[in-house]
Specification:
Structural class: mainly alpha
Radius of gyration: 22 Å
Strand content: under 5%
Mean pLDDT: 82
Distance between the termini: 60 Å
Number of helices: 6
Number of domains: 2
Oligomer: single chain
Order of helices and strands: HHHHHH
Number of strands: 0
Helix content: over 70%
Shape: globular
Length: 119
């Protein structure tokens, strides 16, 4: 049998784990890889300046986008936009297909919302 101090210590650890699990369940899903977030912030700072303020605003921006759009959808839209920028024969398909336009439109709406909240 455990002594009273040991039982209290075990009980405290179990309680903390339970509280931690409940708090973690309340947090939004973070399915964006760190490298994707960092890449977004880096690009955003290239456009908005290399300042601490730009870092905070750009970090806010990707957090807002991540809260509105699952990573899979973000990645699909980013891919469509990259292919469009390259041009060429294959790019025309990505410009004209309604499904591809819709993917980009969803991302653009999330970016607008992020800009309104963060900038």
């Amino acid at each position: 049998m455990r002594s009273m101090p040991q039982a209290l210590a075990v009980g405290a650890i179990v309680a903390q784990c339970g509280i931690g699990a409940a708090a973690a369940a309340e947090l939004p899903l973070n399915d964006y890889p760190t490298v994707a977030r960092a890449d977004y912030v880096f690009g955003c700072m290239q456009v908005n300046g290399q300042t601490r303020d730009a870092l905070e605003r750009c970090s806010c921006s990707i957090d807002v986008i991540a809260s509105l759009l699952p990573y899979e959808q973000y990645e699909e839209a980013e891919t469509v936009m990259r292919v469009r920028q390259r041009g060429g024969e294959n790019a025309s398909m990505f410009l004209t297909m309604p499904m591809m336009r819709a993917k980009v439109d969803v991302l653009k709406r999330a970016q607008i919302e992020a800009e309104l909240r963060c900038f």
